[in-house]
């Protein structure tokens, strides 16, 4: 039994088209194969051999285009690695102050003390500080000084237990909300972990940063947290009958010099 030729059926309000799967563009060879003429589809037999040949040629062409694009992408130069820069903290140039409400604050005001910086470093890509930047800062917990020997003894002994926990350490875990005011000045939210008396908790501080010359970095900011968050006892006065404030505000100025290594 002979196969009957296949015809394309014409409909007054219908159109028939085939689309290239890669480019979503109607293929002209369909019109040629179906014998389009004057706005309606002819009822000439569909030449399956020619249609298959045209479709094969189209797919080969598409494959060659994809291959050429892939080859061009592979030929592009590799992206240069981030230009990481390292700054070493200069303890002699740094300032760290603490502000705590004294017992009977209304009459006595706040107690202001200071800590000495032991060491620290800052590293990152100046062109993209939000990616890969790290900050580490270590303070000497026994260095607290407020001009009041009794208060200093309570803070370094009872509160911080400096004999067993000599370091106060901050290590960043991320840099967020970077805003550059000028090419050498800006601000960012530094997120990290603060370790006090062996207890580590997350902390974040808004910091303003400035590059001075080619080698000097300065950062200023402040952060407030509560003693109980770190399990620290709240300082007291008058033989323990009156408590001081249960939170401390730390204000800092950190200076670092660019390292050659």
Model description:
- The chain is of the alpha+beta class.
- It is 19% helix and 43% strand.
- The protein has four helices and 13 strands.
- The chain has helices at residues 28-34, 48-75, 105-108, 149-159; strands spanning 36-37, 40-41, 85-89, 95-101, 110-124, 134-145, 167-182, 185-196, 199-212, 216-226, 236-237, 242-243, 247-258.
- Strands 3, 4, 5, 6, 7, 8, 9, 10 and 13 form a nine-stranded antiparallel sheet that branches.
- The model is unreliable at 4-46 and 63-80 (pLDDT under 50).
The secondary-structure class comes to: alpha+beta
User: Which percent bin holds the helix content?
Assistant: 10-25%
Please outline the major beta sheet.
9 strands, antiparallel
Give the SSE order as H and E letters: HEEHEEHEEHEEEEEEE
The whole-angstrom Rg is: 36 Å
Proportion in β-strands = 35-45%
Number of E-state strands: 13
What is the averaged pLDDT score? 75
Topology:
Blueprint: H1 28-34, E1 36-37, E2 40-41, H2 48-75, E3 85-89, E4 95-101, H3 105-108, E5 110-124, E6 134-145, H4 149-159, E7 167-182, E8 185-196, E9 199-212, E10 216-226, E11 236-237, E12 242-243, E13 247-258
Antiparallel strand pairs: 1-2, 3-5, 3-13, 4-5, 4-13, 5-6, 6-7, 7-8, 8-9, 9-10, 10-13, 11-12
What attributes does this structure have?
alpha+beta, two-stranded antiparallel ribbon
Quick recap:
This protein is α+β, with helices and mostly antiparallel strands and 261 residues long. The chain is built from 4 helices and 13 strands. Strands 3, 4, 5, 6, 7, 8, 9, 10 and 13 form a 9-stranded antiparallel sheet that branches. A two-stranded antiparallel ribbon has the order 1-2.
């Amino acid at each position: 039994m002979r196969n009957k030729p296949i015809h394309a059926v014409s409909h007054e309000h219908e159109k028939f088209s085939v689309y290239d799967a890669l480019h979503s563009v109607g293929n002209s060879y369909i019109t040629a194969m179906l014998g389009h003429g004057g706005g309606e589809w002819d009822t000439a037999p569909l030449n399956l051999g020619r249609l298959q040949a045209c479709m094969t040629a189209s797919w080969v062409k598409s494959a060659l285009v994809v291959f050429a694009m892939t080859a061009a992408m592979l030929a592009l130069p590799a992206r240069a690695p981030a230009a990481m820069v390292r700054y070493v903290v200069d303890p002699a140039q740094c300032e760290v102050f603490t502000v705590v409400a004294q017992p009977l604050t209304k009459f006595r005001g706040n107690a202001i003390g200071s800590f000495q910086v032991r060491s620290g470093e800052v590293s990152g890509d100046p062109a993209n500080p939000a990616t890969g930047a790290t900050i580490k800062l270590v303070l000497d917990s026994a260095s607290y000084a407020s001009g009041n020997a009794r208060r200093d003894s309570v803070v370094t002994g009872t509160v911080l237990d400096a004999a067993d926990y000599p370091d106060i350490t901050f290590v960043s875990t991320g840099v967020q909300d970077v805003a550059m005011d000028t090419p050498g000045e800006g601000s960012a939210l530094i997120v990290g972990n603060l370790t006090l008396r062996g207890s580590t908790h997350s902390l974040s501080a808004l910091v303003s940063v400035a590059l001075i010359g080619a080698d000097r970095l300065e950062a200023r900011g402040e952060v407030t947290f509560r003693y109980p968050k770190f399990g620290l006892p709240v300082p007291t006065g008058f033989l323990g009958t009156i408590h001081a404030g249960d939170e401390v505000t730390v204000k800092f100025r950190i200076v670092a010099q660019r390292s050659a290594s």
